[in-house]
Amino acid sequence: MSIKTISSREVYRNAWTAVREDVIERGNGQRGIYGVIDKDPACIVIALDHGPDGEFVYLIEQYRYTVLGTYMEFPQGGWERADVEPEDLARGELREETGLTAGRMTHLATFQIAYGVMNQKHHCYLAEDLKMGEPDPDAEEHDLVLHRVPVERLETMILDGTIVDNCTVAAWGFYRMWREKQG
Predict the structure, then answer these.
(1) What is the value of pTM for the model shown?
(2) pLDDT digits 0-9 by tens, 124-148
(3) Which of 30, 65, 73, 93 has the most Cβ atoms closer than 10 angstroms to its Cβ?
(4) If DSSP codes are grouped into helix, strand and coil, which group holds residue 118?
(5) DSSP string of 63-81, one letter each residue
């Protein structure tokens, strides 16, 4: 089914988000309104630490104003620029939020976040050969808490509902399938 845009108007914009309202015509001739949130590309990073004591991932714990709660998730975010190289963004977000730098970055996938209402690409990276440094959070990230979590614990947290961030869950699920295919 195709949808034709009859008109479009921006109703709101700030440094992170633009919201538009489109008058549309569906394939059956019915008209309607579609609200769309446009955001610049973002990334999510699975920082995987292979150590003698097992495999660990790094999670960020932070307060999320939109849902009025503190949650854990993989490092992720954007730079409010459309022209950013995805790997540069992933490396930058990882360093800003965790202080980690990666010797090896592997692009796993590009997702769309909540594409029923939002237009935003989300590049998923695997970061390995990690070195710890100092984080450099931006103003909205002043309260970040870094956690190094065993992979088994991560999966328990996903299954028991401790981790509810759909991007983190999707990234981990994709990574597990990708790793299995690697042999």
Answers:
(1) 0.92
(2) 999 999 999 988 777 676 789 999 9
(3) 93
(4) strand
(5) EEGGGTEEEEE-SEEE-S-
